[in-house]
Design brief:
Number of helices of chain A: 18
Structural class of chain A: alpha+beta
Mean pLDDT of chain A: 93
Strand content of chain A: 15-25%
Largest sheet of chain A: 8 strands, mixed
Largest interface: A-B, 112 and 112 residues
Shape of chain A: globular
Strand order of the largest sheet of chain A: 1-5-6-11-10-9-7-8
Oligomer: homodimer
Number of strands of chain A: 16
Helix content of chain A: 40-55%
Low-confidence stretches of chain A: none
Radius of gyration of chain A: 28 Å
Distance between the termini of chain A: 45 Å
Chain lengths: ~450, ~450
Amino acid sequence: MAQKPSIPKGTRDFGAVEMARRNYIFNTIREVYALYGFRQIETPAMENLSTLMGKYGEEGDKLLFKILNSGNFRGEVSAEEYSEKSSAQLASRFCEKGLRYDLTVPFARYVVQHRDELQMPFKRYQIQPVWRADRPQKGRYREFYQCDADVVGSDSLLNEVELMQIVDEVFSRFGIRVCIKINNRKILSGIAEIIGAADKIVDITVAIDKLDKIGLDKVNEELLAVGLSPEAVEKLQPIISLSGSNEEKLDVMRKALAASEVGLKGIEEVAFVLEALKASELRNEIELDLTLARGLNYYTGCIFEVKALDVQIGSITGGGRYDNLTGIFGLPGLSGVGISFGADRIYDVLTQLDLYPAETQSGARILFINFGPTEAAHCLRLATALRRAGISAEVYPDSVKMKKQMSYANAHKVPFVALVGETEISEGKLSLKNMETGEQQSITIEEAIQIIKY
Amino acid sequence: MAQKPSIPKGTRDFGAVEMARRNYIFNTIREVYALYGFRQIETPAMENLSTLMGKYGEEGDKLLFKILNSGNFRGEVSAEEYSEKSSAQLASRFCEKGLRYDLTVPFARYVVQHRDELQMPFKRYQIQPVWRADRPQKGRYREFYQCDADVVGSDSLLNEVELMQIVDEVFSRFGIRVCIKINNRKILSGIAEIIGAADKIVDITVAIDKLDKIGLDKVNEELLAVGLSPEAVEKLQPIISLSGSNEEKLDVMRKALAASEVGLKGIEEVAFVLEALKASELRNEIELDLTLARGLNYYTGCIFEVKALDVQIGSITGGGRYDNLTGIFGLPGLSGVGISFGADRIYDVLTQLDLYPAETQSGARILFINFGPTEAAHCLRLATALRRAGISAEVYPDSVKMKKQMSYANAHKVPFVALVGETEISEGKLSLKNMETGEQQSITIEEAIQIIKY
């Protein structure tokens, strides 16, 4: 036989069990988004390269998958140009389209393109794959799904409150215990301001972000290295090492940032969100965490991140408020706030904690063994009755050896098997075998429906 | 403002209403597939070009979207080669990957690649987009979804029976009246055989396929033109113009094809499927149609196609049995049977007949008007209670003018609006306005839940 065919590196096939689990994840997120009035949109896999280029930094441009123009892609590019130009320059001549790199830029493009049809605030969610020509490694793929929700066109902090409720609800449904971390970019700006280093905000947040990984001493070293004065670093100490309840932290910060208008604004925003959330009885802890900075310089208000409590893994959800989503496409001043669930990591957490519901295990709920054409014809009718009752049922299509049929049932973790021979047909019954207990009983189809239903 | 951004031609954005409708279509198909024990898989958007090339004919190769290799895609291609080679030759040097063109070839690749893990018969469904560099035109897109189900590894005609039941169930759920047309490739082979033109089967089926469009005379002309003798064309007349019930047609055909073993086999296959379906009380008509040939030369047994009865549109679903799905990847002898629902056409039929259920119209079921921070905080709690009861609810995030909030509710076709001011809060009630009737009542949240629930 020829060599086995394969798929491009960094991509994945999802088999039946993985798909059932992934659908469970996506459907749970989808249902919760919908409960809060978010509505789904989809954008094309391919965008014009003019939409994508320059939006993800120089490195990002390199990681875009570009699609060769159809037909004579060479266009006007002469052999001379071909030898002289760089690969990147040639690529932009040979390709007009690229694959979606994230859901944010297509969403921004969508909002600008359709702005005359959209009613603000616009609450959308989007669950689609994205593609990145990253070097594949464990847990990093070239094709993966993102699950984003955003509200644009509203400055209200109630949107932040709702997104935290959504996070809480989603992880409660999954049965994953999490800590929701919240911070505010304005607090970080305030900190930079009071230590007299407003231009160093990026450096400071990058350094603070490493506290967990490298410890306080190294963070201080780094702060000095980027040009902060020893006095400024000294002023930062109580802030970096802040502890206690959210209220205690907010009190300390209010004093520390008393001289910074923007800092106080950030504190009040966080205080509002935390206060509003008290009334909604979250089932997970929410914690003000000043070391939370998130890489992107893109956020301007509240930022949040979710950590699983019972599994060692990075952030499994994150988001925040941004001020200028659509400015890159010429429509300035549109504020928004969004979150993104990390489906692949959530998959790993659910797997490690063995939290998938039973429905994701099996295909059909019942398999009818095929004893021959007459019996099978009878079973077809019984299967129809079960399906009309909402029960997934299969009739084994071939009348092969019992052993083979049972092994099919086992492989698919089918919880019930029905044996319907001459006797059962004449009695109007079926022998129902519970595959877990091995117990077998002769019952009517109506009785079977009651037993098999979840 | 800068020029509006746009998307590549032949691609589409799907807004909230379109997505709700599309999800209704996909979820209905998905649910029915699952009821019959089919399990979902997904394959990557990108396949190796070696997997895709040569599988769709020369024309198909041109319609593949090819992905430029990352980084220095030029590889070893010199300027000289660049000028000498054809675009197609260069493309295969610059690109290793292409976008999925259909779901069948990736499925065949999947079966071969994972054959050691799969239990036969393997019943899978797959709902994913495919991409074709076709010239875009009305109803033809460069990105569109396919919804396929296949059973491989079983020769049993019960699989055909189940697929017809699935078709019947799906269209019953949609409320679309259809005619299911069935034929068998072996019958067509039998016809070719008895008129002594076994090598002309492709020409004959192509000509017969045009009967509806060009009429009997032109079909006969075409048959003569492809080299059939006048005697052969004469012999074909009763067969092409066959009418009556399925039983009557089968009787005529049994006589006409008495001399052809393969033809009789085809008749018996169709007879078996029709007989088995009688017991399952289909709600739609099924009709033996000898003019049904389907373009692909790929089918070897039963073939079927679904036509909507109340809308003028092409086939909205089709499929059939094939003998050698995986031979192209070196695994011969694997028979299968499959169907594919045409989601875009079904979308158009449902739209024309106005058959979408009410749930696809609106976002949330209820919008709480925002009268200010105190009222909004109270509404957050009420909204949480509704959501816990499974009701999608929104609190308008900003306390802007009533008119603006009501226009939001109208734009989203929200069926209920809640007005909760000081009075309602003190009375523990809410004013619920039915947006369709205009009726307004002051009730408790528990009463509201009963009213708002579907």
